[in-house]
Prior knowledge:
Number of helices: 0
Number of strands: 22
Largest sheet: 7 strands, parallel
Radius of gyration: 15 Å
Amino acid sequence: MRRLKFSWSDYFTGNQGPTLSSGEYTSRQSYSGGIVYVLDCLFNKFTSGSDGGALYCSTSVTHLLIESSSFFSCKTSSQSGGAIYYLNTNGGQSVLYGVCGYDCCSGTSSYQFAYICVGNTASNKNYANYSSISRCVNTNSGCYYTFSLHNGIICCPSVNISTNRCDCYSAIYFKSLIDSSSVTCSFSYSSF
């Protein structure tokens, strides 16, 4: 039997129940500390004036897991992350599993769907698994990158990033940990 949902402990140590679960959200959710686990949520049709149009996690959030959740028509009039913004370079970790992004963008220039930046060591996860991001379109001059993962070990199996448009630069920007003795960025069965 195929298990449809994973749990916190499949990616991180310790027990953690969902921070947000099984609901529709029509306003920006903001977290300023601890751990954030988003499970089976729909972020639907709204615009925020801040980074992370749908979900913002500050530098004090240590772990972020978004699982089996969708972001539809989420926008920010700010610079980064129409759907998701997470920045913690002091040990943060992030996993997206079964995430669907559609028609999300930033109002100014960068990181249309998501900007995720974690700690830059081999123990910091920065994963996007079994996820799809499409129709994130912004034709503003100087707009760039639909999806951006910075630092840590980047692993992206079965990811589809297609039918997106930026005025310049590429649809994806991944900058993994640099370590000549190990694999720090992996894509398999993915399409761009």
